[in-house]
Amino acid sequence: MIASNIFKWIGSLFTEILFIPFNTLRKGDFNWWSANTINWLFLGVLLVLFAYWMKECTKFLREGTEDKS
User: Fold this and answer.
1) Radius of gyration (Cα) for the chain, nearest Å?
2) CA distances in angstroms from 37 to 1, 4, 18, 27, 32, listed in the order given
3) Nearest alpha-carbon partner for 37 in 17, 18, 21
4) Where do the TM regions start and end (predicted)?
5) Which domain holds residue 65?
6) 40 with 15, same domain?
7) Which of 33, 35, 40, 48 is 20 to 30 A away from residue 21, measured at CA?
8) How much is the pTM?
9) For 41-67, what is each residue's pLDDT tens digit?
């Protein structure tokens, strides 16, 4: 009973709450740039995290502390 309620809550969280911005974009009359704003934000976050990851990789490579087989 409790596990069933947890999965129902997770399902309603995703379908009714987290998809609200996507549903409003789908139903509204927006141009291309405003409709893809969320995608551009995700891409920006991804690029920032990738740059940080590459900076950390070069730091460990310089120090020689990376895993070597």
Assistant:
1) 20
2) 40, 35, 16, 15, 9
3) 21
4) 6-25, 37-54
5) 36-69
6) no
7) 48
8) 0.57
9) 999 999 999 999 999 999 988 988 877
